[in-house]
Design brief:
The protein is of the alpha/beta class and 347 residues long. The chain has a single domain, classed as TIM Barrel. It is built from 15 helices and 9 strands. Helix 12 links the parallel strand 6 and strand 7.
């Protein structure tokens, strides 16, 4: 594999010193770029792009070329895991994911299985194509959804403001919720190992719906599975846990073997650091809507963020994925502000 020319993000994740703070954006490979939309519009839909390794690699590399980020994230979706387990999804234009079949009772388990990681071969091929195209310019991040967030989609069948069906299962049939997450966890662990075998340099686990639980429920229904994933993979590559909305569980996340904890924009950096302790790297956390402001304002908020996290053990990012109608020039201002910022290391 090509030697990395820029390994800032890996060093920051490992807690080593860096010349400057590294930066990437969640959802950087996507609709903000006209170049992405051009590829996407030439196809039958989102899934064809995900399942065509050459094209998935092309859109993975676009933000590295166009925006100058310090890492690429493989173009795919967290929903390929439930699909490999037996629940196919459709990506409905302007609405989001939809599952024709869901899990609501014991009988529905007849439709699903722990997936053979080879079923996601197109992802590993996309990783190989991406690594060849990157030629060591920046590291490549692999990812998966957290078992709890995947359960939300498998039970609910689509996005939801409340995910009340998933929460209902936790209270009415906690045994089924655990059984389902056990199967998702097993699938996810072998899937992430296969991504590392294919060459990704680091991993991120997205628990996008963590914030619909409280601390005790999160501890009982999400943490055990995150722990299993982190324990199995973090000796191979640095692993990031991003539990959106779960500022109340940062201390629990910090007790796992992950290297980095994602911080959403609602959480003050100083609070995140106090909860996480001194050892972990933190990633985040600019409010994505700051990128709708003018350039001066974007730079001001970005510098404030950099100062709040400090010069080490920080990977700059937004507090959640970049919104699709964000101007790429504004994203550039965010990135360039970070790249040119010099921390006062005497403080
Ligand atoms: O650039 C990247 O971050 C890599 C690619 C990536 C996508 N989805 C591509 C995508 C990643 C890391 C994801 C993760 C993902 N997918 C999450 C976790 C992160 C988060 O945002 O909380 C979740 C919850 C999903 C599920 C999902 N996929 C939803 C709810 C939607 C519809 C909403 C939307 O943003 O359109 C998707 C579709 C999706 N996944 C798109 C992209 C680029 C847009 C589809 C399109 O191009 O038409």
């Amino acid at each position: 594999m090509a030697e990395l020319k820029n390994d800032l993000i890996l060093r920051a994740a490992k807690g080593q010193s860096v010349e400057r703070t590294p930066v990437w954006l969640m959802r950087q490979a996507g609709r903000i770029l006209p170049e992405y939309r051009a590829v996407r519009n030439s196809l039958s839909g989102f899934k064809e792009l995900v399942e065509t390794p050459e094209l998935a690699a092309e859109v993975t590399i676009q933000p590295v070329d166009i925006l100058g980020v310090d890492a690429a994230i493989i173009f795919s979706d967290i929903l390929v895991v439930p699909e490999a387990m037996g629940l196919t999804y459709e990506m409905v234009e302007k609405k989001g994911p939809w599952f024709p079949k869901t899990i609501s009772s014991e009988n529905d388990f007849a439709n699903i299985r722990v997936a053979d990681p080879n079923e996601l071969d197109y992802v590993y091929k996309a990783i190989e194509h991406t690594l060849a195209g990157l030629n060591g310019r920046v590291p490549l991040i692999g990812f998966a959804g957290a078992p709890f967030t995947i359960l939300c989609y498998m039970v609910e069948g689509s996005g939801s403001k409340t995910f009340s069906k998933a929460r209902k299962m936790i209270f009415q049939r906690p045994d089924l919720a655990h059984k389902l997450m056990d199967m998702i966890t097993e699938t996810t662990i072998s899937y992430l190992h296969a991504q590392v075998d294919a060459g990704v340099h680091m991993l991120q686990v997205f628990d996008s719906w963590a914030g619909i639980l409280d601390k005790d429920l999160y501890k009982a229904f999400s943490m055990p599975y995150l722990e299993r994933i982190a324990d199995s993979l973090s000796s191979r590559v640095p692993l990031t846990l991003f539990a959106k909305g779960a500022h109340f569980s940062i201390d629990d996340l910090a007790s796992t073997s992950c290297r980095t904890i994602g911080v959403d924009w609602n959480t003050p950096p100083a609070y995140a650091r106090a909860q996480a302790g001194p050892d972990k790297t933190l990633q985040g956390n600019l409010d994505p809507t700051v990128l709708y402001a003018d350039g001066k304002e974007i730079a001001k908020h970005t510098i404030k963020m950099l100062e709040s996290f400090g010069s080490e053990k920080h990977i700059a990012n937004l507090g959640h994925g970049v919104y699709p109608d964000t101007n790429p020039d504004s994203v550039k201002i965010f990135i360039d502000t970070i790249k040119s910022y010099e921390h006062d290391k005497n403080q």
